[in-house]
Specification:
The complex is a heterodimer of chains A (198) and B (455). Chain A has seven helices and five strands, in the order H-H-E-H-E-E-H-E-E-H-H-H. Chain A is α+β, with helices and mostly antiparallel strands. Chain A has a domain at 66-193: Alpha-Beta Plaits. Chain A has a three-stranded antiparallel sheet. In chain A, strands 1-4 form a two-stranded antiparallel sheet. The N and C termini of chain A lie far apart (59 Å). Chain B is an all-alpha fold and 455 residues long. Chain B folds into two domains: 55-100 and 162-420, no CATH class; 103-157, no CATH class. In chain B, 62% of the residues lie in helices and 0% in strands. Chain B has 16 helices and no strands. In chain B, helix 10 packs antiparallel against helix 14 (362-390). The chains are: A alpha+beta (198), B mainly alpha (455).
């Protein structure tokens, strides 16, 4: 940064009208009243969304509840590589790997648990995943009556997948080849049943 | 013959006022929330029957909520503080007229050769009283005017819409009781055993004491012109001579600013500034005790709005519409509506100002009170004293106060400009550029070393 890069800004001159405050307060009052009038008499300026009735249209890259994706045959896509749980800054992912019952991969997750209360929804797990198995969805209104309820196991995470697929709110990454190296067809072949059979 | 005191009417009035006040405060919170929402381009509470039942829901919630008293608080004062806040707020309302009133008649001394001839007199003995009354009756017969006795009869014949009528220290009582409210804040903040609460209450005490001075000085002018502290008489004077705001607009502005500070409203809500002090003095309070603080605060708002209405805006009076001698049901209702309308107007003004001006910093707050408002109110009052005493342009010279007020305001602006010039000039000075990060280089050869705890 050079001296000539600095542009010196002079604060505006303070006049008598500013010094006695009252005209400035009056101007401020006009702004306040304008906003109030606009809200009262033309509802188009209102920014409120009536939540339970009106649902927000969230962008597809919203980071909500996780889901575990299924592959084309409806099996869990995860290969239990522990990349997500390693990447997780909140240490909320717990995986127990087991030898895969299917011929196309070595391991599969016997247990896959995410503590949704510990999760900070940073999305690093979905970035780390080499097979696009874990993704954050647009579901945001996550509630439960107990802490145990908020610990999502494999079945629950897979059900989130089914739910979001049924709702048609797929996250961005599942659109083939749009985002990230892992999403491209070539790398999908690691788990894709067709490429493994060759 | 004396001024009657009807216990029944007073009890009815008190219960009506307290009832209305409780409902009114609850709905003021709704109004506040609605106005806040509208100003911020929102909708506001609209769930419980379009928001109309929202205050009742809030009240039920606050009543049924768990009453939490933290372990290390001073229990006695912790419990007493909200009660003090509420009681003082209610008590201040006692002498404030909220509807049609007329001042109580004055007994004037018409005795020949009396030292107090043609002045108000308060006889101390029965003999003196009788002689004063006889002189008064004779004077009334001679001049075909209304005697004191008839005036009293007339006065007693209609209800005064003020809880404690003909209190001659009226406005002084409001200020005295109103400033006792600071005890609630201080005790609450101190007994909470919480730094935020304590800071909030300390700020509050400094603020309330500082703003009491311009508050009193701005009303002093009105008292001087009226010649009485009695609020009914102040209203009557305005009915006869025109509203005080016309003569003393500057005093009105000062009074308004001071009552904002007295009520802890924005831009002076330092005692409970949420962004700095969590909740200020009521951080540790929950459920109904918290609600009592809130109640006291809004009651203060109502009281001060009534005061503003009565002291500067002519109370129930509206030119060409209200008739002071109209005591029919319709007349009373009309005056009542006008008084209520003015008060509600001020309350809404309060709420709009909240979203117009930012909160002052604490030093700015003190600066405003001591260095700006106190000198201005003193100057304004001094000019008023001169005008009232010397009457430069005859009987109507009180009108001079209007241009004089404007002149004082502009003059203070010029003076303020001159005083703040040096600091304005300093903003233009250049800071020499020493290279990137020049000011932050670490001195490695420094003699100062940190004590290592390990060795």
């Amino acid at each position: 940064m050079k001296a000539e890069d600095i542009s010196w800004v002079k604060s505006p001159e303070f006049g008598v009208m500013d010094q006695i405050f009252l005209p400035a307060i009056f101007t401020g009052m006009v702004t306040t009243l304008t906003h109030m009038g606009n809200t009262l008499f033309s509802s188009k300026d209102v920014v409120t969304q009536q939540f339970p009735e009106q649902r927000p249209n969230l962008p597809a890259n919203y980071r909500g509840v996780h889901r575990l994706n299924r592959d084309d045959e409806g099996r869990v896509k995860c290969v239990a590589c522990y990349m997500c749980s390693t990447a997780c800054p909140a240490h909320c992912i717990d995986i127990v790997a087991a030898p895969s019952p299917w011929p196309d991969r070595e391991k599969y997750p016997e247990v896959f648990v995410i503590d949704e209360l510990r999760c900070i929804y940073c999305g690093m797990c979905e970035q780390a995943c080499p097979v696009d198995a874990i993704e954050l969805t647009t579901l945001y209104d996550l509630t439960g009556h107990s802490r145990e309820e908020m610990i999502f196991n494999k079945e629950k995470l897979l059900s989130v997948f089914d739910k979001t697929v049924a709702m048609g709110t797929d996250p961005v990454r599942t659109t083939h080849g749009r985002l990230g190296v892992a999403s491209e067809p070539a790398s999908r072949g690691v788990t894709g049943s067709s490429s493994m059979q060759t | 013959m004396s001024l009657e005191f009807s216990l029944l009417i007073t009890v009815i009035l008190i219960s009506a006022v307290l009832g209305c006040l409780n409902g009114g405060v609850a709905y003021l919170i709704l109004v506040e929330r609605k106005i806040s929402a509208w100003v911020q381009d929102r909708v506001g509470p609209n769930r419980a029957f379009y928001g109309i039942l929202q205050p009742i829901c809030d009240g039920v919630k606050l009543l049924l909520k768990e009453e939490m008293i933290p372990k290390y608080v001073d229990k006695l004062f912790f419990v007493i503080a909200p009660a003090i806040a509420l009681i003082t707020a209610f008590m201040a309302l006692a002498v404030v007229p909220f509807g049609p009133t007329s001042p109580s008649p004055i007994l004037v001394d018409y005795r020949q050769n009396s030292p107090t001839y043609k002045l108000a007199v308060w006889p101390s003995t029965q003999v003196e009283y009788d002689s004063v009354m006889i002189a008064d009756r004779n004077h009334a017969v001679e001049n075909k005017s209304v005697s004191f006795e008839d005036q009293v009869k007339n006065y007693n014949s209609h209800i005064q819409f003020v809880l404690a009528p003909h209190v001659d220290i009226g406005i002084l009582l409001v200020f005295a009781i109103g400033s006792l409210g600071v005890y609630g804040v201080i005790l609450g903040g101190w007994s909470s055993n919480n730094k935020y609460s304590l800071l909030g209450s300390l700020r509050s005490s400094a603020q309330l004491i500082s703003y009491e001075i311009p508050l009193g000085l701005s009303v002093l002018g009105v008292v001087l012109v009226t010649g009485s502290l009695n609020l009914e008489r102040i209203i009557q004077h305005q009915v006869d001579h025109g509203w005080n705001v016309l003569f003393q607009p500057l005093a009105m502005v000062l009074f308004g600013t001071s009552i904002f500070a007295e009520c802890n409203r924005l831009p002076f809500d330092l005692p409970e500034s949420e962004q700095e002090l969590v909740g200020g003095y009521h951080t540790e309070y929950s459920s109904m005790k918290f609600a009592l603080f809130l109640f006291g605060e809004y009651t203060h708002m109502i009281t001060t709005s009534f005061l503003m209405m009565a002291v500067f805006f002519g109370g129930w009076h509206l030119p060409f519409i209200t008739d002071p001698n109209d005591f029919s049901i319709f007349g009373i209702a009309l005056k009542f509506a006008i008084a209520a309308g003015k008060t509600v107007g001020f309350i809404i003004f309060y709420m709009l100002i909240r979203w117009t001006i930012l909160r002052f910093r604490f030093d700015q707050l003190m600066h405003l009170a001591w260095k700006i408002m106190l000198p201005i109110s003193l100057a304004s009052f001094t000019m008023l004293v001169f005008i009232v005493h010397f009457k430069p342009i005859g009987q109507e010279s009180i009108w001079l106060m209007c241009p004089v007020s404007l002149a004082i305001l502009l003059g203070s602006g010029f003076i303020g400009l001159r005083i703040s010039k040096p600091s304005a000039a300093s903003t233009k000075t250049k800071v020499p550029y020493l290279g990137h990060g020049a000011g932050y280089s670490v001195q490695h050869d420094s003699k100062i070393r940190f004590e290592s705890s390990g060795r």
